[in-house]
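Design job #97: recover the sequence.
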């Protein structure tokens, strides 16, 4: 057998370099539904299986560069789970301890994963942001009380969106060979939509940046008419913001869509059964938003979105008939067989 050429090696010299450079894939069903090309950025292919590995790495490197983190120090973070998983991995790789504060309503898989990775897990009841017991405020207090600790503060630390300005946006631009008409995704911290939006606009200001908002979040109304007002609710984890975080401040949002859990689940089900992609609900909501944006931009347009995390993280919820029925959501037909 002839040896393959050695010109394009993909060996990386540090496990931290495994973060980013994720593949981009053309999504068949969504492209057909939109009448144009819909591409998905496979963020589930990061080592922590979500888009948040990038934010975790950039926040850690920023803290190190500012001299805030000493060897053997501690990183404390409040998170819906995925940032905690990314943070625990990068912290292990750099020799830090991780303390993660998480609402007890998040998926069982995320809690088990965090414990398995060695993070110290603090569960708090779900509470509104105005309540001092909210996971974000609890994590800040814990960081203040812990010797040698920093607070990662993903919502208002703009090292988060910088990850997407400096990595996700240029990757998408290169992978689409500079031919991209629109980008959309939902916001948790807002780091992804703001960072990718800013990064892409710097390459071509004509690219339409659209926010895809789940029900129960306040950003759709904010970008549509300036009013931070939430309506309805969603079971999607990791997205749904009620305020303008520092990461969202100045995000170049041209237009916005509001997407229901049912519409998001429709795409989660179809992408799994027709294209072999097992995703979480925020990815389905993003794809529904991308289809809406594609229809608006018209035939021949090229739209990209984010496939945020793996569905394996939601086996006890999204892929569990009992859970879906209890939430009044449709059950994927193959689950009732
Ligand atoms: N989807 C999932 C599953 C997430 O965990 C997050 C992060 N909270 C997001 C989407 C949104 O990403 P961002 O924080 O960059 O807005």
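Job complete. Output follows.
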């Amino acid at each position: 057998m002839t040896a393959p050429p050695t010109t394009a090696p993909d060996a990386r010299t540090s496990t931290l370099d495994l973060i980013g450079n994720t593949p981009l894939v053309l999504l068949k069903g969504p492209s057909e539904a939109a009448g144009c090309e819909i591409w998905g950025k496979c963020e589930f292919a990061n080592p922590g299986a979500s888009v948040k590995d990038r934010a975790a790495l950039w926040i850690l490197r920023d803290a190190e560069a500012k001299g805030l983190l000493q060897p053997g120090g501690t990183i404390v973070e409040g998170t819906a789970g995925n940032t905690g998983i990314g943070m625990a991995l990068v912290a292990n790789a750099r020799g830090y301890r991780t303390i993660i504060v998480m609402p007890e309503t998040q998926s069982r898989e995320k809690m088990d994963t965090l414990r398995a990775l060695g993070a110290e897990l603090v569960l708090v009841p779900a509470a509104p942001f105005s309540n001092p017991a909210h996971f974000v405020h609890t994590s800040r207090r814990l960081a203040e009380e812990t010797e040698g600790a920093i607070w990662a503060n993903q919502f208002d630390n703009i090292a988060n969106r910088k990850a997407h300005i400096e990595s996700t946006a240029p990757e998408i631009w290169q992978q689409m060979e500079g031919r991209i008409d629109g980008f959309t995704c939902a916001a948790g911290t807002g780091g992804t939509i703001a960072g990718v939006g800013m990064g892409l606009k710097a390459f071509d200001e004509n690219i339409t940046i659209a926010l895809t908002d789940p029900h129960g979040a306040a950003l759709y109304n904010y970008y549509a008419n300036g009013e931070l007002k939430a309506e309805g609710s969603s079971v999607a984890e990791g997205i749904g913001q009620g305020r303008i975080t520092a990461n969202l401040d100045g995000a170049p949002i041209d237009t916005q869509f509001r997407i229901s859990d049912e519409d998001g689940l429709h795409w989660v089900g179809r992408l799994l059964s027709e294209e072999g992609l097992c995703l979480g609900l925020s990815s389905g909501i993003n794809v529904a938003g991308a289809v809406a944006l594609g229809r608006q931009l018209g035939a021949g347009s090229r739209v990209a979105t984010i496939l945020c995390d793996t569905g394996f993280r939601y086996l006890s919820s999204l892929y569990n008939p009992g859970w879906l029925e209890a939430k009044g959501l449709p059950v994927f037909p193959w689950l009732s067989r």
